[in-house]
Each structure stands twice: as C-alpha cells, then as structure tokens.
Write a structure and sequence with these properties.
The complex is a heterodimer of chains A (about 90) and B (about 950).
Chain A: E1 3-6, E2 10-13, E3 18-22, H1 35-43, E4 51-57, E5 65-71, E6 77-81
Antiparallel strand pairs in A: 1-2, 3-4, 4-5, 5-6
Chain B: E1 23-27, E2 30-34, H1 40-46, E3 53-54, E4 61-62, E5 75-78, E6 81-85, E7 96-99, H2 116-120, H3 125-130, H4 137-148, E8 163-174, H5 178-189, E9 194-197, H6 215-227, E10 230-233, E11 237-242, E12 246-251, E13 254-265, E14 269-271, E15 284-286, H7 287-297, E16 304-309, H8 312-324, E17 327-333, H9 343-348, E18 353-355, E19 357-364, E20 368-376, E21 382-390, E22 393-397, E23 400-402, H10 405-409, E24 414-417, E25 422-425, E26 432-434, H11 444-461, H12 470-481, E27 500-502, E28 507-508, H13 509-517, H14 523-530, H15 543-554, H16 558-561, H17 575-579, H18 592-597, E29 601-605, E30 608-613, H19 617-626, E31 629-632, E32 637-642, H20 646-653, E33 666-672, E34 678-688, E35 691-696, H21 701-716, E36 721-724, E37 729-735, H22 739-744, E38 760-766, E39 769-775, E40 783-789, H23 793-803, E41 810-811, H24 814-823, H25 858-867, E42 871-878, E43 890-894, E44 900-912, E45 917-925, H26 926-929, E46 935-940, E47 943-950, H27 960-963
Parallel strand pairs in B: 1-7, 8-9, 8-13, 9-10, 13-26, 15-22, 16-17, 16-22, 17-18, 31-41
Antiparallel strand pairs in B: 1-2, 3-4, 5-6, 5-7, 11-12, 12-13, 14-23, 19-20, 20-21, 24-25, 27-28, 29-30, 31-37, 32-35, 32-36, 33-34, 34-35, 37-40, 38-39, 39-40, 42-45, 42-47, 43-44, 43-46, 44-45, 46-47
Helix pairs in contact in B: 5-6, 5-11, 7-8, 11-12, 13-15, 19-24
The chains are: A mainly beta (about 90), B alpha+beta (about 950).
Bound molecules: FE2/S2 (inorganic) cluster (FES) and zinc ion.
Chain lengths: ~90, ~950
C-alpha cells in the first residue's frame, strides 16, 4: 500500500486518505472566462506522465487538505505541503 | 490381513512423524492409518494410494507430483473445505477426506472413457465451443461445472474467525531456508528489526528433507535465529508485494500486513516437470517430492524406482533411496559425466546407470508401469532404439525454476539465462535483494554466503552498516558463476501419446501448437486462449515449459518470447482471510435504545441506523397531520461557523444570498459544485452576528464537511472557523398542529407567532436544558426542530413524549417523513437529484443568485440559464390513483414504430394517505414538465401507465399550516 506523506502527521497508509485528483487553479467566474476555458477547468486533466501536483485529504487523521507532488509512474512523492505554503 | 501401510519404511533419520502414536482418517469412505506428523498425502502414499484426483478436462488419473504444494494433483476436499493440498495438510484424527473432480468415482471416471473429453474440449474450447449461441451459455456452464468442479463449497459453513495484524520491520526476509536464515541473521546483527517468513511448518527450507548436508548445519542456524532479534513467522505464505514494500502474508485465518524498509527474497526454487509422452501418469513424481516422502515421513514412493536426472540432486535422491532400501531400476542422467560421490556406491550396489540418456516416455494405464529411455546426442535428440525399464515410479529431477513470482510483482524484470536455462531478475529494484537458490546459488555454502551478503546489503540500505566490500561481492559472483548447471531445457520428441504442459488445465503440447498456429503467438494471448498457467498452480509447474515450447515453435529465444505478467496472490488464499472480520461500524443517536424499546424497525442511512417506522408508517403520517409527532433527526449534518469571515464563505459555498440575513433568522440553502450540480441542501441560521449554524442532509454530512474544509483550507478560510457539531447535538423534530402546545409545557419562552415566527431560531430552555430551537417545517406542519446537547438528548426526548401524551403524541420514522415531505413537494438531495441535477432544473431557480460576484457553480449556472435546463424536476399524479410507480422507473414516449423512447425517470413516489392518491416527483423534458396537467407515460412491469404533471405542493399549497 502506498505511503502518503501528510505534512502534519508524517508518512501514513494511503487507506487513511482521500485522493482528490490533480490540482487545477480555479478561474474566477466574475472575470471573463470563456466557455472553453471553463470547460477545460472542469473536465480536462493533464494526465501527466511524471511529477504532478495533486490534492489529498487526511480523512482518518488530522483532517487537513494538502497538496503533494507525486510521480505518476513510480508513485514516488517529491514533497507535500499545505495550500499556500509550497 | 494385508499390511495397511505397505510402503512405510523403517525409521529414517530426520523424519517428523511420531511412530509411537497412530491416528486414523477416512479417504473416499475408507479408513486409513497415519502417524501424527503425516500429511494426508504421505499417509495415503504409505497405504499405497496412487490416484489422488482426476484431471480437469480429460479426467485422467493424477497422483502426487510436486509434494510441495505447488501443483493441482493432490487437491482434495476435507470436510466442508474444498481444494486442500493433501501434501501440505497434516492429518488429524477422524478427518473426512474426499477426492474432487471425480465422478462417479476416483477409480472409474466416465468422463475419461474413450477420451471423451478430447473431441469436446479442443484448445480455446471456452471460446470456440461455448460462446455461440450465447443464450446456451448457462447450460454449458452448468455442465462444465459438474464436470470440472474444483471441490464443493458448503453454503452452510459458518463464518470463520478471520482477523488481521499489522507488522513493522526494518528488513523482511521471505523464505526461511539456509540463505534466508543467513540474511536474517546478518541483518539482525547489524541492528535491524527482522521479520522472517516461511511457508513451511519449521525453518530450514530444503535442509529439512534433503540429505545434502548433515543435520548439524540446520540445527546450528536455527539456534542462532532463536537467540537473535528476529520475528519468525512459519506456516506463512507471502501473497504479494505492494507499493512501498507492503507485504500481504497469510497464516491460517490471519492476514498480516507487513511493512518493511528493505526486503530479501530468499524464496528458493521450484522443481519442475518436463515434457514426455504420458508425463502425467500417477507414479511420476518430482525428485524433491520423493525425497520429502522418504526423509520427512519415511514413505517409499513405490517399489521400483527409475531416477531421471540432469544434475546432482537426482544422485542425492538415488543415494537416499539406496540407503532406505528402495529398489532402484536405473539412474538415467542426460549428462555424460559421472562424478557424484554416491555413484561408486550405487554402481557397486548393481544399480544400472545410463549416462548420456534421457527419458522419452512413460507407459502404463492407471499408473506408470515402465519408463522408456534412450541415448541422446549432444542436442538432446534420441539416438538408436529406446529401452523399456519396468518400474512403478519415475522420479524426475531434471530442472529447477527460481521462485521469483513475488519479486516480479515487486517490479523485478526477468532475464532468461540461456546457459543455465533459468530465469533471473535484473535489475532488482532498489531496496530489494534476492538471495540463495532463487538467485542461482545451488551448493549449500554458496546459498549461505549469498544470503549473508543480501542481509548485509539490506542493513546497509537502512544505513545500519557498511555494504560488504567490493572484493567480497566479486568473490561471491565468481563462485556463483562457477556453479554447476542444474536445469535441463530438453524437450523429448512426441511419440503419439499425450504430453501435458499444464496439469491444472490439461493443456498439451499439441494444444500449444494449435494455439500458436491459430495466431495466439504472444505469451499473454497464448495464456488466455489456452488457459495455460491459469489454474491452481498459477504457472509454477507449467509456465517455464510453456515458454520453452513456445519459443521453440516460433524459433526464437526464451527471452524474446517473454513471460506473462506475475500478479498477486502468488499462492491461493481464502476469500474470508481477505474479507477479514464481519465488522461494519454504525452510528447511532443518543436515544437509539429508546427506539429499539419501542419496537422501531431500523434502517441503514449512510453510516447511521435510523427508525424507519414504529410499526405503521401510515398511522404515523396521519398522527402528524392531525395531532403531533416526534422524529429523531440527529443524523443531520450540523456545522457551526464562527468569525467575521463566515458570511463571505457562505456566499461562496451556497447559491443563495446570506449577507443580508438578520440575527435569529433562518434560510433554506443549496450548495452546488462548480459544474452547477446540486451537492447538498439544508437550513442555515444566523445565531448571532458572528455565529452561523447550518444543517446538511444526513447522508451527505461527511462529504459536506470535507467539501467545506477543502475551500476553507485553500484560500477561503479568512477569519472563519468551522466546527462539526453533528454528534455534539441530537436533533428532534416536533411536528403537527399540537406541537406548540406540547413545547409550551416545557419552556417559558413565548412561542406565539409574533415572538417566534416561522423561519426563526431561538436559544430556548426545553425541560431545563438549553437548546437551539428552529421553527422550520419539512413536513408542512407547524413544527419545531430542537437541537439539544447529546448528553441530555434522552431526557428532552422523554420529556417531549410525556408532555405530548395528552395531545396524542407518537414517534414517527423516516418513512412517514418521506411521505409528509412528498405531500409538500419537497425534494431530497440524492433521492430526487443525481450527478446531473442543477438547481435551475430542480425547481430551485428562485434560490440561484447569479448577481453574486462568485459562488461555486456560478459560471456553469450562467451557462445553463442561457438556454434553460433541458430537464425539470416536477410533481406528478397518476391517472389511476392507486397505482404507485416504483422509484427509478423510466418515463417513456411511445414512437410510431411501437418502440418506447426513454425521456425521464421517477425519483420519488408514494401513496399519500392524506390525499388518498398516488403522488410523486419525476424528471421530465422541460417542455412537458413546464406544463401543469400535461400527461406522460410510465413504463411499469410491461404496462404503460398515464400520469399528469403537477406543480407546487400537493398539500396545503399556501403553507398556512406551517405558519399557523
Ligand atoms: S503434490 Fe501436493 S501440490 Fe503438488
Ligand atoms: Zn494528517
């Protein structure tokens, strides 16, 4: 089982976490966002082969949402951090 | 009386049976004797039993083959337990053992008469024979199951006591033979916590049954293990390697989940059979199986044995047989050299020795009666006329296959070593090490040394010690490269009889030929088409032979041919072990026991157990409409937001407006995601300036909490704090025309319509307990929702029930509530909405405040509002008033050609006891749904039923009752 590095609790079994997909910055809807841009934000994922940034939630743990950089092929985590901390 | 155990030998050194005691068991209805320590197979062998099972397709008799728990041949049913490997299962007194896959009997199997199976079951038979016509498949399947069954599952077997255990170690060593033990000792010495797994009943690996060492080396190793800090798990199968060195292992009814920082794979080798005519006859055993019978259980495999070999192991075996007094018909060795130390004794004893010769076939009907051997040339082809040696046993010791399946599941890449005719792994992934005979080491000293080095490397990986110096590694590599080859890749030429590549699935060399000729020439396709390696042995007995055969047919190297992907589990496992204990956590409210005492029928709602009704849901509905009822709504999600940032957050989370909500007021709110899909709904109150209190659906509470946290923790959390109050507060809804009178008896607060109107919240003392009381009305009646600290929940609930006695109060459950809300036309998120439902279509357009600068779903709802929603959620009534269409049914539009187009679906439906007619909610295309009174058609049980669109509440459309 994958070991996920929670920035608060340290390395824990993946079964404690909820995985919430690739990180995508949200366009602000009050600005001019075209239908295409909005649809891309909603439905398109980069499906990176390599390191990408993704959301995790420590469900059976501290209850924090955090970002992790993980290699999608080897599953190796580069780092994890709270939002805004990088 | 004849001897019941004709092939039991006099005592053997190292045997593990207790000859001073006897037990008995039944096999196939007959009683057999055994000694404690015997396996079912050893006891049956001692009694001279040769046929253990019938084969899968052709129902040919099969006997012991590997003696090591790898092959399908010795599978039996023990009591209610199917598919037990009799060579691994210890005999117990009165055990009831039966053969499998043999009908009508083990001796006389109708399926094998006249080779019946042959015509019926060509290679790929699943695909060719049984797929067309597909509607006949159920019949084929039934017939196949009867013919092919792998034992019988007893449906009445009680649920076993399965459990699991987590293990943590620095270094895990898989395999407790000499190399595994050495690795474990070395790693422990360096300070590592070591987990040592072995699938045998004791450590020692082949030292337990092979006489290539004196017993002192084993004793010595075991003693050292005992004094070292090593956790030993015997009788434990490691099923697979998973991400980050997570091992699944099973001992009996327990699943181990083991995590280690480094792993040594000292998994040993598996002896494999070869291809020759009639290679499946009972009496043909692998050499290691014979040695196990001989040296562990004191049983002779037969009366006259031909040893066929291509390595030193066959000679070790022959020496053992000679010492045990078993007659040797011959030793047949492919090699031309005769340098084994035992060869002198064997020759002196008059055992015929044929060097440069090989086995080309076996003869016999129910069991082997002769071996056919021939001299071979340098490329292994027979020369000259064959020789027939009469015998009742052929011991095959011609090749080994390193047991690397686990390491493959861990990402190890296989490399076929042509010069040794064996697989190896290169590269081995970081932190993983392979040692011992799995790594090609054969001589005991090399195995020990190889294990030691692997253990040191594993400890060095954890930086507990220095890696071994390079010259030590070089020396070991040199030693290993000088090891004598132990595996022959020779395949005998066919001579008209069946030659089985795969014993589990009865696949012959001809089948492989055919499959490749038909185009299934990649190993993965060949496997799926022929089902080679898909049976109980999972390729352990057959995949290397299949590969060699395939590569020869295609004229390419084994490496080019490649091998099929290994996947866990590498050995069979009980589903019960994987399922674990039957534990499903449930949440119950603070008055759960009260419900049970009142005979409530409980239902599962999300994680909660809730009263569905207390016997008569219709009476409960009527009681709420006419008098007063009380429902436990504790599972509602309850969240508190504090801080000046709360209004900002709410404005973004909900489609509604919040900033203008005044203190003490309540508003209904809807949350959407950015796709504009409805996620949850509930009420939200401004308790005071900086305190907001909101509820969500019961089943969505957990998800809603995570959802809010997500936005809160990613930039929207300024000056606001979220607290989950779901379990802190119990919640009861007091509903019905008399609810005010009931509550009045328990509080001093003015409950008049002026002081406490509809859609307000008040801090109120109820029965002496400070509560939050909402005046809201999901049921459409005057009602008060009382949120009380859970510790006082039962007290307040009982006080309400008592106070309501004179007004005819009765509890009501989820079912009555569903009817009551449906009469009011209120939707339930998740019941009446799905992952496609937006609030514009779901009749909540009034709540959508597109003019807000931002909220979740805004951009998508703007887009949807341009054309308007395609589907609408509306109420309906049935033309035939008593017909209640099932929830989930399709709404159809009959076409001219008689076909029915699906245009919508029923999301809720009930018979309304108040209105005495069937009502419901459904999704319809906007054009039909927008027109009250429009008719549409529901498809139910092959009939078409007519229904009419209804807008707004069915009952009390003006809402007078709840505002009264
Ligand atoms: S003989 Fe028992 S599994 Fe092979
Ligand atoms: Zn955490």
């Amino acid at each position: 089982m994958l070991v996920v590095p929670c920035p608060n609790c340290g390395p824990r079994n993946a079964s404690e976490f909820r995985y919430a997909g690739e990180y995508r910055p949200r366009p602000h809807p009050s600005q001019d966002v075209t239908d295409d841009e909005w649809a891309t934000y909603l439905y398109t994922r980069s499906n990176t082969l390599g390191v990408h940034t993704e959301w995790w939630f420590h469900t059976s743990g501290c209850g924090l949402w955090f970002l992790a950089e993980r290699h999608t092929k080897t599953n190796a985590f580069v780092k994890s951090y709270l939002w805004g901390a990088t | 009386m004849s001897d019941p155990t004709p092939t039991r030998l006099p005592e053997r050194p190292g045997e593990i049976i207790d000859r001073t005691r006897q037990v008995s068991f039944t096999f196939n209805g007959e009683i057999y004797p055994a000694h404690p320590g015997d396996t079912i197979a050893s006891a049956l062998s001692a009694a001279g039993v040769r046929t253990f099972s019938r084969s899968f397709k052709y129902h040919r008799p099969r006997g012991l083959l590997c003696g090591a728990g790898h092959c399908p041949n010795c599978l039996v049913q023990v009591g209610d337990e199917p598919n037990v490997r009799s060579c691994q299962r210890a005999v117990e007194q009165d055990m009831d053992v039966n053969p499998q896959n043999a009908w009508p009997s083990l001796d006389q199997d109708v399926m094998s008469l006249a080779g019946l199976g042959d015509r019926f079951m060509p290679v790929g038979f699943y695909y060719k024979t049984f797929m067309k016509p597909s509607q006949l498949w159920p019949h084929y399947e039934q017939a196949l199951r009867n013919a092919a069954g792998l034992g019988v599952v007893d449906q009445g077997t009680p649920w076993g006591a399965y459990d699991k255990q987590y293990l943590h170690g620095d270094v895990a060593v898989i395999g407790g033979g000499p190399s595994g033990i050495s690795a474990a000792l070395e790693a422990a010495e360096a300070g590592a916590n070591v987990l040592l797994f072995d699938n045998g009943p004791q450590l020692g690996g082949h030292l337990r049954w092979r006489s290539d060492s004196d017993d002192t080396s084993r004793k010595d190793l075991l003693e050292k293990v005992q004094s070292a800090r090593i956790e030993v798990y015997t009788d434990t199968d490691v099923l697979g390697w998973y991400q980050d060195n997570w091992l699944a292992a099973v001992r009996g009814d327990r699943l181990f989940k083991a995590r280690a920082k480094a792993i040594v794979f000292a998994t040993g080798t598996i002896e494999v059979p070869t291809l020759f005519d009639n290679n499946d006859l009972p009496g043909i055993l692998l050499g290691s199986a014979v040695q196990r019978l001989l040296n562990l259980y004191g049983v002779a495999p037969g009366r006259r044995v031909v040893v066929v070999t291509a390595n030193r192991h066959g000679w070790d075996l022959a020496a053992d047989l000679l010492a045990a007094g078993v007659e040797l018909a011959a030793i047949v060795d492919e090699r031309r050299t005769r340098d084994h130390p035992a060869s002198v004794d064997l020759a002196a004893a008059g055992v015929p020795i044929y060097n440069g010769s090989a086995l080309t076939g076996a003869r016999g009907r129910k069991a082997v009666s002769a071996a056919v051997i021939s001299e071979i040339d340098d490329s292994g082809n027979p020369i000259g006329p064959g020789r027939v040696l009469s015998c009742d046993t052929i011991a095959l010791s011609t090749g080994w296959e390193p047991a690397l399946d686990l390491l493959y599941t861990a990402g190890g890449k296989s490399v076929y070593q042509e010069n040794r005719a064996e697989m190896s792994v290169d590269p081995v992934p970081d932190g993983l090490y392979v040692a011992g005979s799995a790594n090609g080491a054969d001589l005991l000293q090399a195995r020990v040394e190889d294990g030691r080095v692997a253990g040191r490397l594993a400890a060095a990986h954890l930086e507990l010690t220095e890696p071994p110096p390079q010259q030590e590694l070089d020396k070991l590599a040199l030693e290993l490269s000088k090891e004598e080859r132990r595996t022959s890749d020779r395949i005998s030429a066919p001579d008209g009889k069946k030659r089985f590549v795969c014993f589990c699935e009865d696949v012959t060399d001809v089948d492989v030929d055919t499959a490749i000729a038909e185009g299934y020439d990649s190993v993965e396709l060949l496997k799926r088409y022929s089902t080679i390696s898909m049976g109980p042995c999972q390729g352990k007995m057959c995949s290397v032979n299949a590969l060699r055969l395939c590569s020869r047919i295609k004229g390419q190297s084994v490496q080019e041919t490649g091998r099929t992907t290994s996947r866990p589990p590498t050995t069979p496992v009980y589903l019960g072990v994987l399922a674990g204990q039957n534990m499903e956590p449930v949440q119950v409210s603070s008055i759960h026991d009260w419900h049970l005492d009142r005979g409530a029928s409980m239902m599962v709602a999300g994680l909660w157990l809730r009263p569905e009704h207390y016997g008569d849901a219709t009476a409960e509905v009527n009681n709420v409409r006419n008098r007063v009822g009380l429902i436990d709504v504790s599972p509602l999600g309850k969240f508190q937001l504090t801080g000046p940032g709360a209004p900002d957050l709410l404005e973004r989370l909900y489609i509604n407006q919040w900033r203008n909500l005044r203190k003490g007021r309540v508003r209904y709110g809807v949350m959407c995601n950015d796709e504009g899909v409805v996620l949850d709904d509930g009420v939200c109150a401004r308790v005071d300036d900086d305190t907001w209190y909101l509820s969500t659906t019961s089943t969505g509470a957990g998800t809603a909490f995570q959802w809010i946290q997500w936005w809160l923790q990613s930039g929207w959390g300024g000056n606001v704090h979220l607290t989950d109050m779901t379990e802190i507060y119990s919640a009861f809804n007091l509903a019905g025309p008399h609810s005010r009178e009931v509550l009045r008896k328990l509080t001093k607060r003015d409950l008049g319509n002026k002081a406490f109107p509809y859609m307000r919240i008040r801090r109120t003392r109820v029965a002496g307990v400070s509560c939050r009381v909402w005046r809201i009305g999901f049921t459409g009646e005057l009602s008060y929702e009382i949120h009380v600290p859970s510790s006082a929940g039962l007290h307040v609930w009982e006080a309400l029930m008592e106070a309501g006695g004179e007004f005819g109060i009765a509890p009501f459950g989820v079912e009555a509530q569903r009817v009551l809300r449906l009469e009011k036309g209120h939707l339930i998120v998740g019941q009446d909405t799905d992952a496609m439902s937006d609030p514009l279509g779901a009749d909540m357009a009034w709540a959508v405040k597109l003019e807000k600068p931002d909220f979740l779903g805004k951009r998508s709802l703007e887009r949807i509002s341009v054309d308007g929603p395609h589907q609408r959620l509306v109420g309906f009534e049935m033309t035939r008033k008593h017909i209640v269409p099932e929830e989930g049914l399709q709404i159809v539009k009959p076409q001219e050609n008689g076909k029915l187009n699906i245009i919508g679906w029923i999301s809720s439906s009930r018979f309304s006891p108040t209105l005495k007619k069937s009502i419901g909610l459904c999704w319809l295309p906007s054009d039909i749904g927008s027109e009250p009174g429009a008719t549409f058609t529901i498809y139910q049980d092959g009939r078409l039923e007519e229904a009419r669109v209804h807008h707004g509440p069915f009952f009390d459309p003006g809402g007078e009752r709840l505002k009264s």
